[in-house]
Design brief:
The structure holds two protein chains of two kinds. In chain A, the strands form three sheets. A six-stranded mixed β-sheet of chain A has the order 4-7-8-1-9-10, sandwiched between helices. Chain A has a two-stranded antiparallel sheet with strand order 2-3. Chain A has a two-stranded antiparallel sheet with strand order 5-6. The radius of gyration of chain A is 18 Å and the shape is globular. Chain A is of the alpha/beta class. Chain B is an alpha/beta fold. In chain B, β3 and β4 form a beta hairpin. The radius of gyration of chain B is 22 Å and the shape is globular. The chains are: A alpha/beta, B alpha/beta.
Chain lengths: 240, 484
């Protein structure tokens, strides 16, 4: 992380309505890419530019990126003890509304919205009564990420290893949620190590990231090819 | 990594907000010349038209105090205090007896408004009676009649001395003796007023009793005395809240609170302390040396202290419980927040004397800026206190890299059937937690307020509703922008 160049050559265009999958072996820079788009300040940007809806994304603070419509589903959602999920979400939703010049939701409106989204994702209502991610199982944490995504309705959702640590049932629920939230107006970037998730969320494009570069791009069939031949197939052709 | 310098810079920028309750009320005040000697004490007692025993109490305390030294064992840097430079008595000259609010000094009402406690609204607020202490003399007391119907006495200490001298005489100094410590002795000698509360046998006080304190006259030490007695099978919840106007010179505050709980009685004492903490360079601010002690005298009695401490330049305070009655219970729940150059050495003492006595300590320290925050607690189980239990949890949260957090637990267990547990943690606000909030559109300032309130929730939940809301805001305001 310190003093190491992680991402070296990424050229990616994501349009509304598209689903892009970024695949790659461990350490290829997948999560770094997700974090940089969300604005985590652990990284120094040496060169390059990121344009989001005509705006220079790198100029924006993480909270403004969020309010502008970028959502990161975390690989490891952090626990915030003592902060009820419902308070956290209400603050979050109202910040987004304020940014759009809308009045904050009343308690009643907020609860109604929450119920609707829970029904849509087939979530049990218990999660929102607990503290943010505190004591959640791996599956619960990921479901909670998708629930927040549903509440915030982002224009660009970046799902970082959303499938990791999920059993097949949880994976299905999470994937169905993501599919249900898909519209022609929003876009999704799936960051994943395995092809498995792509059985449930079918991408329009697949990019293979290796050593900080996108070394191969293609349609959904690329994922199958990768699954079949393994990452060695990529590594052998690209190691300097 | 988050850049440490930037963090500290941000912390500096936003925590350098001015104290928002810094204003001075211009009321005609009756002031005794500064300095302390037997003559001053006699003058205080005379001006207050006190009974003879009270003067004796004061003089005994004063004579003992002369032989005592300021305590130096705390983890505090206390500048030398010149006790002869302090004014020991100031009372608003306005007559304290009012029939309605129109008669109250408009300046005073304005002060209440700034404090956010307009009396006219307080009167209608269900369940809250307010005995407002302005400097040293109670200016107005509400709900007295409602309470009187139940036989509850809730009045200024001066009124109690006039109307119930026997009760005062019976209990005063039984929880905190005049010789207890330097500051308690000083308070006993010179205290000017305070609150008195008596709940008769079998009575459950129907409302939260609430007192707002305020230091007002420049250079006046505030020496409050509170005495709460809960007779057999009674219950009372008592709220104490403080905001002090801004001053450049340091002000001494040495209060004493005594609680006595008889058989099966329960007393809940809650404090939100927001005295002026000094400016961001450590100039000014209140020196707060408080002695608070409750005696669970009766069987199955219970005393709980809940405090949210955000103010004062120096805080020296250990609300304690002496568990004499068998099966009695003591509780201490504390959030202590320090910022800039504030210093706090606070905690509790739980003294188990009776059998099957229980105590719980939950302490949450939050340090920011260049402040120093210490927890100091004693759990002492006497040989006769068989089957007693204590559980202590002391957490420290650090914001930034220039503050300090310390824990000094003292544990003495005198028998083999008792169990004492102590847990302690120290943590920093996680960058990951802040980023998570940022990624959901929540600003860093709001994120910190939220995380700190979450950290303190266990204690905040113990506060009565209206107090909890105030305390939450106070924590968020006191720490806006402090990145850890």
């Amino acid at each position: 992380m310190e003093g190491k160049e992680i991402l070296k050559g990424i050229n990616l265009e994501v349009k509304a309505g598209e689903v892009h999958a970024i695949m790659g072996p461990n350490g290829s820079g997948k999560s770094t890419l997700a974090n940089i788009l969300a604005g985590k300040t652990d990284y120094e940007i040496l060169e390059g530019e990121v344009t989001f809806q005509g705006q220079d994304l790198l100029e924006l603070s993480p909270e403004v990126r969020s309010r502008s419509g970028i959502f990161l589903s975390f690989q490891y959602p952090v626990e915030i003890p003592g902060v009820p999920m419902i308070n956290f979400l209400k603050a979050s939703v109202n910040e987004h509304r304020k940014f759009k010049g809308l009045e904050p939701l009343t308690a009643g409106e907020f609860l109604k919205l929450m119920r609707a989204k829970k029904d849509m994702l087939h979530l049990d209502s218990e999660l929102t009564n607990r503290s943010v991610n505190e004591g959640f199982s791996g599956g619960e944490k990921k479901k909670n990420e998708i629930f927040q995504m549903a509440m915030l309705e982002p224009k660009l959702a970046i799902l970082d290893e959303t499938d990791s640590g999920l059993d097949i049932d949880a994976l299905r629920i999470v994937a169905e949620g993501v599919n249900a939230l898909k519209t022609p107006e929003n876009a999704t970037i799936l960051v994943t190590h395995y092809q498995r998730l792509l059985d449930y969320i079918v991408p329009d494009f697949v990019h293979v990231l290796y050593n900080g570069r996108i070394v191969k791009s293609g349609g959904k069939e690329l994922a199958f090819e990768l699954e079949e031949k393994g990452y060695d197939w990529i590594k052998n052709g690209n190691d300097q | 990594m988050y850049d440490m310098e930037n963090q500290d810079q941000l912390l500096n920028d936003i925590t350098s907000q001015e104290y928002q309750y810094g204003f001075i009320t211009d009321i005609d005040t009756d002031v005794i010349p500064k300095g302390l000697n037997e003559e001053v004490i006699r003058l205080i007692s005379f001006k207050k038209k006190e009974p003879e025993f009270m003067l004796e109490f004061r003089l005994n305390a004063y004579r003992h105090w002369l032989k005592m030294k300021t305590p130096e064992w705390a983890h505090l840097k206390i500048p030398p205090i010149d006790f002869q430079e302090t004014i020991y008595y100031a009372a608003p000259r306005t007559s304290p007896k009012y029939q309605n609010l129109d008669e109250v000094d408009p300046e005073l009402l304005e002060t209440f408004k700034k404090l956010g406690i307009p009396i006219e609204e307080q009167k209608h607020l269900a369940g809250v009676a307010v005995d407002v202490v302005m400097d040293s003399v109670s200016v107005t007391t509400t709900f007295k009649k409602v309470l009187a119907e139940k036989g509850i006495i809730f009045c200024s200490f001066s009124d109690a001395l006039t109307e119930h001298p026997d009760l005062v005489r019976k209990y005063l100094g039984t929880s905190v003796p005049t010789t207890d410590n330097f500051f308690a002795a000083l308070n006993s000698a010179v205290f000017s007023d305070g609150s008195f509360c008596y709940i008769p046998k079998g009575v459950r006080c129907p409302m939260e009793l609430s007192t707002y304190f305020r230091i007002n006259t420049a250079g006046t030490g505030q020496f409050e005395r509170t005495l709460i007695i809960a007779d057999d099978d009674s219950y009372v919840s008592y709220l104490e809240g403080c905001t002090a106007p801004k001053r450049d010179e340091n002000q001494l505050h040495a209060a004493v609170v005594e609680i006595i709980a008889h058989d099966r009685a329960e007393v809940k004492y809650s404090t939100v302390q927001n005295w002026y903490p000094g400016d961001k360079n450590g100039l000014g601010g209140i020196y707060n040396f408080v002695t608070k002690r409750g005696i669970c005298r009766g069987v199955s009695s219970k005393i709980s202290w809940t405090q949210v401490e955000t103010g004062s330049a120096i805080t020296w305070k250990y609300p304690s419980c002496v568990l004499i009655g068998d099966n009695s219970v003591g509780e201490f729940n504390s959030v202590a927040l320090t910022n800039h150059h504030q210093q706090a050495d606070t905690g509790t003492k739980m003294i188990h004397i009776g059998k099957n006595t229980k105590s719980t300590i939950v302490s949450k320290g939050i340090s920011a800026g260049k402040s120093d925050n210490s927890y100091r607690g004693l759990v002492k189980v006497m040989p006769g206190a068989i089957n007693s239990r204590n559980y202590s949890q002391c957490d420290s949260l650090l914001l930034g890299s220039t503050c300090g957090a310390h824990t000094f637990p003292y544990i003495e267990v005198g028998n083999k059937s008792s169990i004492v547990e102590h847990e302690a943690t120290t943590s920093k606000i996680g960058e990951d937690q802040i980023f998570y909030c940022n990624q959901r559109g929540i600003s860093t300032e709001d994120a910190i307020g939220m995380i700190v309130n979450g950290y303190a929730r266990e204690v905040l939940n113990k506060l009565p509703m209206e107090f909890a809301v105030e305390a939450q805001k106070l924590l968020a305001i006191s720490l806006e922008g402090s990145v850890g």
